[in-house]
Specification:
The protein is an alpha/beta fold and 159 residues long. The protein has a single domain, classed as Rossmann fold (3-Layer(aba) Sandwich), CATH 3.40.50.960. 48% of the residues lie in helices and 18% in strands. It is built from 5 helices and 4 strands; from the N terminus they run E-H-E-H-E-H-E-H-H. Strands 2-1-3-4 form a 4-stranded parallel β-sheet, sandwiched between helices.
């Protein structure tokens, strides 16, 4: 039986981070966590490109273009949508998630979803580097593992 899984070695790989500027007081912690983890795993600083978009709704098309460019081994999508008093949260969070999922299905490189969707600012703060860890760093781990798994899959399929 053959088994495949990606390792956590980022040497020689390029990564795109697509990050929302909305709620930047949260998202910047995610970006720093992701970039820091990628470098800890061996990626060079100049192998990480960060593309800032206005909000979570704008993440999917930029992620799709980055993934299709052939310049990156993985794309990380980082944002924070915090529930408010209107239904706006459901629309933005839902459409962002659907768009990122659709892009991931269509692309030859992994696209990692790390858009926080929280009820409160406190929950977002916890997930961007305090009690619940840093979900940007977690996304970087997933991106490296999946980039390496995709490479193993391409070799196995003879692509």
């Amino acid at each position: 039986m053959k088994e495949f899984q990606g390792d956590l070695k980022a040497q020689g790989k390029r990564f795109a981070i697509v990050a929302s500027r909305f709620n930047d007081f949260i998202v910047e912690h995610l970006v720093r966590g992701a970039a820091g983890m990628l470098q800890k795993l061996g990626a060079e600083a100049d192998a990480i490109s960060v593309f800032y978009v206005p909000g979570a709704f704008e993440i999917p098309p930029v992620a799709l273009r980055a993934a299709r460019s052939g310049k990156f081994h993985a794309v990380l999508c980082l944002g924070a949508v915090i529930r408010g008093a209107t239904p706006h949260f459901e629309y933005v969070a839902g459409e962002s998630a659907k768009g990122i999922a659709q892009a991931a299905r269509e692309c030859p490189v992994p696209i990692i979803y790390a858009v926080l969707t929280t009820d409160t600012i406190e929950q977002a703060v916890e997930r961007s580097g305090t009690k619940a860890g840093n979900k940007g760093a977690d996304a970087a781990l997933a991106a490296v593992e999946m980039a390496n798994l995709y490479e193993a899959l391409r070799r196995e399929l003879g692509e």
